[in-house]
């Protein structure tokens, strides 16, 4: 252990908590991961990772000497830094539900003692939550002192599926709070800021990577940076989807348009992929959260509302394309390829496939679904949906009338359609992620493209 090693407690072992714990342990700190979910803690103690995240199991295994898992908050008493990484799901009207943050603050407070401690909000929280957590600590910590117990906002920018790369090689580290507390955070993150750690085998450093920028700011600005970043990315995707709809109508191609505008460094090509629209646990929640903050201050946010509306419409665009080809879906066999909201994760939260399966069933179709990783989770979380689970892509496509590609898994990018099509009853493919790149003998519909992938159907 290096002499700059610190003691850290990480509250919440979801995507962000596990990412944070793995990162800090890899930087040489002593980390205790805390969760109220007994089953998760039991799994982690047994070396099992409760989520699918590439490379995470290998990294956790390699740093297990620096890691401990617990359902108790006792480790907080010896921690230099305590991270809050619990969920902030949307409540009524999109207002984030802070009950888990409040409960974490109330539970950790009695363990604060004379030891210098920084309490870090890593959860995405409404602007003003840092002050709220500080008040909760004041109310529940007998030995509370303003000088020794500071709240810092350190928002997380990792993406699921690439969490390790994003955590180890970030563009920027945003820190909001009192300068004394930010100094402690700078010490904690020193090997990350200086990039002096040894890159783990499961997440090598990209060749072109340079050190992250550090943004030292106030609590409020740090909290706002997180929301504004997610809202802007969501907006970018909705912009691409809106332009894609017009591309289809005027004979342009969104892929070429995105490349053309993305070459302007002021715009950038990333997050301009048209398709099924955004899913996942954060873009919907955080755009709604910002709108609700605006509402609280009697301030309209029409751009964000439009981004949400375009995203909602995008799911119907896919169904409309299918109906245009099939007329009625009654009695038709429709296959959905991809259930997770994006590749390389088994997270099903707000996945486009959920709404597609529900709508197809409602329209009378017999639905079959497949996902390389997320099917066991869907069995538990989507028990309310009616669909047949396919054991393989071949099984999923067997005697299908139509197929919708809802997630761009590599396995689906690599499919040999000429070998698969003969086993299908029909030949309609709605490629809602624009991944088919070579002409195939089927009715192929993509988003914002004039089906350059398709050739006239001969069957
Ligand atoms: N999922 C993602 O990719 C990202 C999420 N975020 C934000 O980070 C926060 C956490 O998100 P996820 O990791 O996805 O959440 P999650 O829902 O996967 O995990 C939250 C964990 O916190 C635990 N928990 C709840 N209350 C607790 C308490 N009082 N004490 C201890 N553990 C408790 C839950 O049992 C659960 O294991 C959210 O605010 C989210 O918006 C930010 C960036 C990326
Ligand atoms: O706050 C969060 O939770 C995180 O939200 C997103 O990360 P994530 O939701 O894990 O995944 P993304 O890669 O951003 O994809 C989100 C959704 O947008 C869709 N998307 C993404 C990019 C694109 O060009 N087009 C598009 O439709 C994806 O398919 C997916 O459904 C942000 O990218 C992270 O920076 C942020 O930390």
Automatic annotation (TrEMBL):
| Catalytic reaction list | UDP-alpha-D-glucose + 2 NAD(+) + H2O = UDP-alpha-D-glucuronate + 2 NADH + 3 H(+)
At the top of the EC hierarchy, this enzyme's class is: oxidoreductase
Q: Return the InterPro entries for the record.
A: 6-PGluconate_DH-like_C_sf, NAD(P)-bd_dom_sf, UDP-Glc/GDP-Man, UDP-Glc/GDP-Man_DH_C, UDP-Glc/GDP-Man_DH_C_sf, UDP-Glc/GDP-Man_DH_dimer, UDP-Glc/GDP-Man_DH_N, UDPglc_DH_bac
Q: Which residues form the UDP-glucose/GDP-mannose dehydrogenase C-terminal domain?
A: 335-438
* Name this protein carries in UniProt: UDP-glucose 6-dehydrogenase
Highest taxon listed in the record's lineage? Bacteria
SMART domains to which the protein is assigned, alphabetical: UDPG_MGDP_dh_C
Question: EC number(s) in its UniProt entry?
Answer: 1.1.1.22
Give the similarity note: Belongs to the UDP-glucose/GDP-mannose dehydrogenase family.
Q: What is the organism field in this record?
A: Deinococcus daejeonensis
Q: Does the keyword Oxidoreductase apply?
A: yes
User: Which pathway does the database say it acts in?
Assistant: Nucleotide-sugar biosynthesis; UDP-alpha-D-glucuronate biosynthesis; UDP-alpha-D-glucuronate from UDP-alpha-D-glucose: step 1/1
Keywords, ordered alphabetically: NAD, Oxidoreductase
């Amino acid at each position: 252990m290096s002499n700059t090693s610190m003691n850290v407690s990480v509250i919440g072992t979801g995507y962000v908590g596990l990412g944070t714990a793995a990162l800090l342990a890899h930087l040489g700190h002593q980390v205790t991961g805390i969760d109220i979910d007994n089953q998760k803690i039991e799994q982690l103690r047994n070396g099992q990772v409760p989520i699918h995240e590439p490379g995470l199991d290998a990294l956790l295994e390699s740093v297990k000497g620096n890691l401990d898992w617990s359902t108790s908050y006792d480790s907080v008493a010896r921690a230099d830094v305590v991270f809050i990484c619990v969920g902030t799901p949307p409540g009524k009207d999109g207002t984030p539900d802070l009950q888990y943050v409040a409960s974490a603050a109330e539970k950790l407070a009695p363990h604060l003692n004379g030891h210098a401690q920084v309490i870090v909000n890593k959860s995405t929280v409404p602007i003003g939550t840092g002050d709220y957590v500080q008040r909760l600590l004041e109310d529940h910590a007998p030995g509370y002192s303003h000088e020794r117990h500071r709240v810092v906002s350190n928002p997380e920018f990792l993406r699921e599926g690439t969490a390790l790369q994003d955590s180890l090689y970030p563009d920027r580290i945003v820190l909001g709070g009192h300068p004394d507390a930010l100094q402690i955070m700078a010490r904690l993150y020193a090997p990350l800021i200086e990039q002096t750690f040894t890159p783990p085998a499961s997440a090598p450093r990209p060749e072109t990577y340079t050190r992250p920028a550090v943004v030292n700011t106030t609590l409020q600005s740090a909290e706002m940076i997180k929301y504004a970043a997610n809202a802007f990315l969501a907006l970018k995707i909705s912009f691409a989807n809106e332009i894609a709809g017009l591309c289809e109508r005027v004979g342009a191609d969104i892929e070429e348009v995105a490349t053309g505008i993305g070459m302007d460094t002021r715009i950038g090509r990333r997050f301009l992929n048209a398709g099924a629209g955004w899913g996942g646990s954060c873009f919907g929640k955080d755009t709604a959260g910002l709108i609700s903050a605006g509402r609280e201050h009697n301030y309209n946010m029409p751009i964000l509302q439009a981004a949400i509306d375009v995203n909602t419409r995008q799911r119907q665009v896919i169904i409309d394309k299918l109906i245009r080809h099939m007329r009625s879906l009654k009695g038709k066999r429709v296959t959905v390829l991809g259930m997770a909201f994006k590749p390389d994760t088994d997270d099903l939260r707000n996945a486009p496939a959920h709404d597609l399966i529900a709508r197809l069933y409602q329209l009378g179709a017999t639905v079959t679904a497949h996902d390389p990783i997320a099917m066991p989770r869907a069995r538990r979380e989507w028990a309310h949906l009616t669909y047949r689970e396919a054991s393989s892509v071949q099984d999923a496509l067997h005697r299908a009338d139509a197929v919708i590609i809802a997630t761009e898994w590599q396995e689906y990018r690599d499919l040999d359609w000429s070998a698969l099509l003969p086993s299908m009853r029909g030949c309609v493919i709605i490629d809602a992620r624009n991944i088919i790149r070579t002409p195939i003998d089927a009715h192929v519909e993509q988003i914002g493209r004039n089906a350059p992938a398709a050739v006239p159907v001969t069957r």
